[in-house]
Write a structure and sequence with these properties.
Layout (H helix, E strand, L loop, with lengths): L19 E5 L2 E7 L3 E3 L4 E7 L5 E7 L12 E8 L2 E9 L7 E6 L4 E8 L3 E6 L1 E7 L1
Antiparallel strand pairs: 1-2, 2-11, 3-10, 4-9, 5-8, 5-11, 6-7, 6-9
């Protein structure tokens, strides 16, 4: 493993705030799955990690806030920051289809963080964030 996070075999399908790596010879990948987070009007950290000495060329997907049992949906915002600087803001609504995706380059030795904040408090309505990418 060349950076922070988990090497393959340690937590290969893990969810949580950290990053995971899969290394297969010349093809190296990074991914992070936030797991489901209950909608809250208080800012909640979805992903947070430090990178190592490599660059991640990644793709973020902000999944719509929804309740699986009855298909209820809501609105939330996401703030992406690196090294304490905001680099992107997203507004996502369950009934409108704003672009839920964001391409991003994460430089070496970066502190990466995504916070989400809902327009409502509803523990039954869940939000998930997914990061996938290539490591160079």
């Amino acid at each position: 493993m060349l950076g922070g996070g988990n090497p393959v075999g340690s937590n290969p399908a893990g969810t949580g705030k950290g990053i995971n790596y899969i290394r297969t010879g010349e093809n190296n990948f990074a991914y992070a799955y936030s797991g489901d987070i209950g909608a809250s009007q208080t800012a909640t950290t979805a992903l947070e990690f430090d990178t190592g000495n490599e660059t991640i060329v990644g793709h973020l997907n902000f999944n719509q806030q929804c309740e699986f049992a009855n298909q209820a949906s809501g609105t939330y915002s996401a703030q992406v920051s690196m090294n304490g600087e905001v680099v992107a803001l997203k507004l996502l609504e369950g009934t409108d289809f704003y672009d839920p995706e964001l391409d991003i380059i994460i430089p070496p030795f970066s502190r990466f963080k995504i916070e989400i904040k809902s327009a409502e408090n509803s523990a039954d309505e869940k939000i998930t964030v997914v990061l996938t990418g290539r490591v160079y």
